[in-house]
Amino acid sequence: MLIFIHELGHYSVARFFNIRVERFSIGFGAPVWKRKARSGTTWAVSRWPLGGYVKFAGDAGSASNPDAAALDRIRSEEDDVSDIFHFKPVWQRALVVLAGPVANFILAAVLFAVAVLWVGTRHPEALVGEVEATSPAALAGIQPGDRIVEMDGRPIDDWVSMAQHIQLRGNTPIKTVVERDADRIALTVTPRMIEDEDFVGGRMTRGQFGIRLSSDAQMETRRYNPVSALAFGSDQVVNTLSATGRYIGRIFSGREDGKQLGSILRIGAMTGKATVDVAKAEVPAGERVRNLLLVMLNLGAGISVALGFANLLPIPMLDGGHLVFYGYEALAGKPLSQKKQEIGFRFGMAILLGLFVVLTINDIGYIGSLLS
Fold this sequence. Notes:
The protein is α+β, with helices and mostly antiparallel strands and 372 residues long. It has a domain at 122-222: Roll (Pdz3 Domain). It is 51% helix and 21% strand. The chain has 10 helices and 12 strands. The chain has helices spanning 2-16, 68-77, 90-119, 136-140, 159-167, 226-252, 264-280, 285-311, 319-332, 338-371; strands spanning 21-36, 42-56, 121-124, 128-131, 147-151, 154-155, 174-180, 183-189, 192-197, 203-208, 211-213, 219-222. The strands form 5 sheets. It has a 4-stranded antiparallel β-sheet. A two-stranded antiparallel sheet has the order 1-2. β7 (174-180) and β8 form a beta hairpin.
């Protein structure tokens, strides 16, 4: 579904600009089902369901790299070439390419919104209970009963937002303000890196202060109408993108090992494990179905954001790589030469194959942690 929505974003904007689309495919390889629409587009489900593509007239392949020979033939054989993607203004091509990731971000916001519209959200105040001895919090001077109100200049609304801020800042000092007996005290806490379990029991690393939520913390339950739910969903998309960007930045700075990045095997493992856990819960069948739908809504939203983000990476063959080429064309007043584009696409393929190997190794280690 997530891939379909991504490709539908490309397709819809292309058709808005009256661009000729030859094929809309979910999966790669030989089609196992196909149907030709009146518009001339062949809709297909292909053998290898590891992605999808929209192929425009004049494309050399599924990555929408131009086929110089095919474009020359179209010019010589057709009087009207205004519906050819590669002959459209650069800003229209850029919007078509950008539409795929944007469709994923919109879908994620809607999925997040449906989840909170259904059950609302719970927000425990950031009130400290137990402080572990010799933990980063204890060494910095945090005490039981302190209320954490600010981190790195950002207000902290609840325990969840506090934990999310700490999680991606292991071994990085955090300027923290606590409220104690009506006084505000500024402290600097450096979270330690620990190995922990994610929501399905897989191994992950994260930053930790060494504090626990107080049993006296007040709990706020928030309900949403359609407008406020969509606003919440949009905020979640922005926060997820920010967290993803921060994590990747920490990989390049050597503060993370990158093992939290995964691919299709991890998606399958997480989905399967979440389904099994919900099915085993000793609750009425109706509640099990409800819980499973909520898990899938949130998991699907998170993966949709990741799919949009990954496609915006400036790697040839991905949407972000096309946008880099179009940016050059807009600045230089002419497209990058066919030969240089081909070199770029080959380089991009090599990068993607390398990433596939790394992510598969990560996925195997993650699945192993689920089984241990």
